[in-house]
Amino acid sequence: MSYLELGQRLNTIYKKYHTPSYLEMDPLKCVRRFTDPSQIEIAGLIASCLAYGRVEKIIQSVESVIDITSYDIHSFVVNTSFKEKKKLLGHIIHRFNSGRDIAVLLEAVKSVIKSYGSLENLFISSFNEGYNLKEAASGFVSVIKKYSPVSKDKRNGSYFEYLLPSPSSGSACKRLNMYFRWMVRSGDGIDLGIWSRVSPSILIMPVDVHVARAAKVLTLTSRKSADWKMAEEITAQLRKIDPDDPVKYDFSLCRFGMRELRTGTEYGKRKC
Fold first, then answer.
1. Which of 78, 80, 83, 242 shows the smallest number of beta carbons within 10 Å?
2. In the chain, how many domains are there?
C-alpha cells in the first residue's frame, strides 16, 4: 500500500469513527465532565490508570472515585490525608487493584502537586534537551512512584505499580500514552488539549490488541508483540502521514479494530 493510499484509508477511518458518538463506551466521557485543567489532569490520570478490563467496569470504577471526591478531585487529593483516602476509597475493587492502590496513587499525586504545581509541570520537567517521549514518560512514572507513601511489593498485597507501567520495561504503556494523548491533543470533541506546552508531534501511539490488529491490516507494523517497539514503529509510519499529529488516529483505529476487524469479541466488552 502506498503512502497516498494509506493516508486515504486512514482518513476514511478517521472520519467515520473520530466522533463523540463513540465516547459512550469510553472512560474519557467521565473526564470530559470537568472543565478546570487542575481537575481534568487528575481525573484523566485516574481514568487512564484504571482503563483495563471490561469497559463497563472501568467506567463504574472511575465514576465511583469521582463520586467519592464530590466532583472536586483536586481538593480531595490535596486536602485529605492518606488515612482519609484509604478509608473513603477502601471499598473499591477494580480487578487487580484495590481502593488502597488508588489511594496510594492519589497521595503520590498530592506530593507531585506540592513539588511541581501540576502533573503537566512534572511531565515537562522530565524532558531535557535530546530526550524523547520514552525517557520523559519513564521519568514521569518514576517520580510518581517515588512519591508513593507505601511499599509496592506485590507480596504485601499491593498492585499499585500495575496502575503505572513504565516504558523502561519495554511495555507498550497503552494507558499512559492514552493519558498523554488526552492531555496534549487539542480539544476536538474527543481529546482535551489542556497541556498546551507539549506538542502532539512527540506523542507515541497507544497500542492495545485492537490498535495492533488494525495496524497489521494497514501494514503499519510488522512486529508480532504489542510492545513499546511496536508503538514506536506504528507512530513512525503515522508521522509520514501527519508529522504534526500522528496519534490523532488512535481513537478511530481502535474503534475500527473493535468493530470491523474483531474476531469473536463482542463490541464493548474490552476497553481500547
1. 83
2. 1
CA angle 246, 213, 20 (to 5 degrees): 55
> Helical H runs in 22-173?
28-31, 37-49, 55-68, 73-79, 82-89, 99-116, 119-125, 133-146, 160-163
How far apart are alpha carbons 116 and 138 in whole angstroms? Answer: 17
d(CA 119, CA 48): 14
Q: Alpha helix locations (H) across 118-227?
A: 119-125, 133-146, 160-163, 174-184, 209-217
CB contact set of 73 (below 8 Å; sequence gap of 6+): 34, 39, 42, 43, 46, 66
pLDDT digit string, tens, across residues 221-248: 999 999 999 999 999 999 999 999 999 9
C-alpha cell at 181: 494523548
Q: Which of 54, 106, 44 is nearest to 75 (CA)?
A: 106
pLDDT digits (tens, 9 = 90+) for 164-186: 999 989 999 999 999 999 999 98
Q: Is residue 268 part of a domain?
A: no
* Burial label, 267 (beta-carbon count in 10 A; 0-12, 13-18, 19+): exposed
Q: Tell which residue, 113, 111, 84, 114, has the closest CA to residue 100.
A: 84
Classify residue 221: in a domain, yes or no: yes
Residue 265 falls within a domain, yes or no? no
